[in-house]
Write a structure and sequence with these properties.
By secondary structure, the protein is an alpha/beta fold. The protein has 10 helices and 18 strands. Helix 3 packs across helix 9. The longest helix has 21 residues. Bound molecules: zinc ion.
């Protein structure tokens, strides 16, 4: 089968498009004929170094994905051959302390597609049936694929960790990336007031068109001063953050007393000053988050089905042009997801 895979670590020259053995389906697994995937920052991380993530080369890239069930156990009741499906990329063990308490996303043996095992940028993927969900109606495969990492991550950050309420104000740093855009869409659907930041005026205009209530140009304005002006000196209830060190101080100063900051990344550095006095006096909460659980994915898919939410797709590449797709993601110019079409079949 055709696949995009890494043969080492470095730039695009370690990424090959070519033939890999088709996975053999184990009992309990589903073999999915992939139609589309979208790229995530971790794909660049795996290409560049993959440090700290146990994996064996060559390894097929790609975390999220959507396709059609090709093979499934005869006893499977939830899924059938020919069904359109979207994948949850985290394969948990089902047996450890964390799995047993229903938090598979904390599993000590969790294996992510495209990180610890072969991923979705291939004609076929085989994975446990519990990781395979019916695709919401009326979506393209690329739109559905985009839900599996960024929207799931944003869902857990906003709802499970952030305890978002309809009357909250949310501050989202670095609008334009996959998680921040997903958070904007999901926070607006929850009824919240949303303030976004970017250093690119064009991205702010697009975010306002998508429903953001206010946009702060962080190349020209102080984010926390603007936040205080926009909230009558109160601050925001929730900060959604994956930029890290460059915005940390500003994020902390933007929070209302008792407010929550949820972080899922540290693109600009992971060692900001802790500002402990502010944390305990103002009783702030700082929460880490990564991806989301199977039940959170089910809730997200139900919301998408009910509301018609569609992830923002920036651009679309055939799998054979994986280098161009990775370069687009790396450029930082994108607004929304970089999609990869795996099958030529129409969505
Ligand atoms: Zn486990």
């Amino acid at each position: 089968m055709k696949a995009a895979y890494i043969t080492g670590h470095g730039g695009n020259d370690v990424v090959e498009f070519g033939d890999r053995p088709q996975p053999r389906r184990q009992a309990g697994d589903v073999l999915v004929r992939m139609h589309a995937a979208t790229l995530n920052r971790v794909d660049l991380y795996m290409r560049d170094s993959g440090a700290g993530i146990t994996h064996a080369l060559p390894q097929i890239m790609g975390l999220d994905g959507a396709g059609i069930v090709a093979e499934v156990d005869a006893s499977e009741t939830r899924l059938a051959v020919g069904q359109r499906v979207v994948l949850h990329p985290g394969v948990s063990c089902g047996r450890c302390e964390f799995c047993l308490r229903g938090e598979g996303v904390l599993c000590i043996r969790i294996g992510y597609l495209g990180e610890h095992r072969d991923g979705t940028l291939a004609d076929y993927v085989s994975l446990p049936a519990r990781n395979v969900f019916a695709m919401p109606n009326g979506m393209s495969f690329a739109q559905a694929a985009a839900l599996g990492v960024n929207h799931l991550t944003a869902w857990r950050m906003l709802h499970t960790k952030g305890q978002l309420k309809a009357w909250h104000t949310v501050l989202i740093f670095g609008i334009g990336g996959g998680v921040s855009l997903a958070a904007l869409q999901l926070a607006k659907l929850a009824g919240a007031r949303v303030i976004v930041t970017s250093r690119h005026a064009g991205k702010l205009d697009k975010a306002l068109a998508l429903g953001a209530d206010h946009a702060i140009d962080s190349s020209r304005q102080s984010v926390d001063k603007q936040i205080m002006a926009l909230t009558n000196g109160r601050g925001v209830d929730l900060v959604i953050e994956n930029v890290g060190q460059a915005v940390w101080a500003s994020a902390m100063r933007s929070l209302v007393r008792g407010g929550r900051l949820v972080t899922c990344g540290a693109t600009t550095g992971d060692q900001p000053p802790a500002d402990l006095r502010r944390i305990f006096i103002r009783q702030l909460q700082i929460l880490g988050s990564t991806l989301g659980d199977l039940h959170e994915f089910a809730d997200l898919l139900a919301l998408v089905e009910a509301t018609g939410l569609r992830p923002v797709i920036d651009s679309d590449f055939p799998l054979a042009q994986i280098h161009a797709a990775l370069s687009r993601l790396e450029s930082g110019e994108q607004f929304g997801k970089v999609a990869v079409q795996i099958s030529a079949a129409a969505p």
